Amino acid sequence: MKQRNFWVILTGVIIGIAALALTLLGNPGNMGFCIACFLRDTSGALKLHSAEVVQYMRPEIVGMILGSMIIAMISKEFKPRGGSSPMTRFVIAIVVMVGALVFLGCPLRMMLRVGGGDLNAIVGLVGFIAGIFVGTLWMRGGFTLKRAYAQSMTEGLVLPIIAAVLMAMSVFLPSLFAASESGPGAMHAPILIALGVGLIVGGLCQRSRFCTVAASRDAMMFKDWSMLWGFAAVIVTTIVGNLILGKFNLSFADQPVAHTDGLWNFLGMALVGWGSVLLGGCPLRQVILAGEGNSDAAVTVTGFVVGAAICHNFGLASSPKGPTVNGMIAVAVGFVILTLVGVLNREKA
Amino acid sequence: MTEFIATFHTHLSAMRTQRALTREGIAARLSPVPRYLSASCGTCVIYTAEDAHLNCMDADAERVVERLDDKQSFRELFKCS
Fold first, then answer.
1. Whole-structure pTM over 0.90, yes or no?
2. Which of A148, A209, A280 lies nearest to residue B35, judging by beta carbons?
3. Residue B72's domain spans which residues?
4. What's the ipTM?
């Protein structure tokens, strides 16, 4: 087996096992990991939105940023860079978050939902791949957010430091933060375990460059299938794990934190796929890159947090009852925004 | 003939270089950057030629290396920060 494939598959298996463990220890169903949901919860904990059921400072995200940073520093790959159209990335990040919260999950959670037997996530997966395909057409057509430049160590450390400080404050000064008493935000694994698992997964993702978008994008653009092994590893691990644990439930209905509206599951994830290709990686990858000192990725993660707040403050996020009218309009607007971003950032190839 | 790998700051730059090399009659293909070369997940151009053809590199080229016999060893020929 190629060494690259080994690390990617190992990362996928560990993510799958970690997600199953975190769910057993308290995280919501099929939500051992979800970058969109966890940043949404964090956004709520910071009182950027007031949806009472989704407010919690998720240690997994902080762990992933710091895990990536530690491994990058040890391997001399912590290289602060930035300046590649940061505000455009911020806007795309908001659009991606709209798509994710209309579907109810980032691409990683979509995989975990598939692994739990949630057939709505299969519909989302088809939309995700369709969105990635559209994104690759823009890439082939000359889309570029321009190059990034080397930056100071300080610039690269800002987001990891903010994440660490907020995590410490949420532990030692919990009254400053909002915390759900019911709903998904109230369901969580013990803090230290969640933080530790995040550190391990963050470090592994840094080594393997694991990315849910790269799996399909690289296959479409370069006929390179390496990352698809990791994608498959997550799904296979969670299917096997859920079957062993008796939690595999093959159906559309009655899935945890999910709705059954196929059209909007498809369109929500199509928006995520397209936007993520323009960003150069999925939400998970942005978190890892931010840990490596990439300030463009840090701006993108900030965009996700703001996007989550917008979704809940303006009623764009779906609920298990289904998508909202505002959410549907926002997804349509999102497609228009991505088209405009594409047109305005196109150069002769 | 030697195998070269060129990495870039943008995907567009990699595409332009691949086309420039192809116009010179050199077999060049786009690929994800090998992990041993970089932690970033950009696009590289892999090509086989008598020399590195640095004149074909786009303005946003980052690095050109010559791959040595051991598949993961390389010699750096050009680097731009």
1. yes
2. A209
3. 2-79
4. 0.94
